[in-house]
Amino acid sequence: QVRVVESGGGLVQAGGSLRLSCAASGRTFSRYGMGWLRQAPGKEREFVAAIRWSDDNTSYADYGDSVKGRFTISRDNAKNTVFLQMNSLKPEDTAVYYCAARDEASPWMTARYWGQGTQVTVSS
Q1: What is the pLDDT at residue 94?
Q2: Cα–Cα distance between 98 and 78 in angstroms, integer?
Q3: E strand or H helix at 50
Q4: Angstrom distance (rounded) from CA 74 to CA 89
Q5: Which pLDDT band holds residue 30 (cuts at 50, 70, 90)?
Q6: Which among 51, 55, 114 has a CA at the least distance from the CA of 84?
Q7: What does the alpha-carbon distance between residue 109 and residue 44 come to, in Å, rounded to a whole number?
Q8: What are the pLDDT digits (tens) for 33-46?
Q9: CA 54 from centroid of its chain's CA atoms
Q10: How far apart are CA 9 and CA 36, in angstroms?
Q11: Residue 92 — pLDDT band, cuts 50, 70, 90?
């Protein structure tokens, strides 16, 4: 059984940092990757970042425009875990952050596996 579990959300002041973790179990998702999406109240779910890696262990990361230069996605293969380091946080980053994992070339919004979400709140 595949499980995806996030952790690390919380409350932080604007300008601060948080690190989210996403642990997958049951299989690995190297080819099509693991990613983060977020949803703020009253808004549509938004792509944040994703990472995939090749057989030679090269990582490929993608970021949403609103987080480029502030967020960094990384992975720990041994732990089948992906991290999202969020720096220079802004109040508009406040949302529930979801980890997703794909086992096919589908849009991130329709990824097959999802975590339960973790709340990130940035105060001004």
Answers
A1: 98
A2: 22
A3: strand 46-53
A4: 18
A5: confident
A6: 51
A7: 10
A8: 999 999 999 999 99
A9: 19
A10: 13
A11: very high
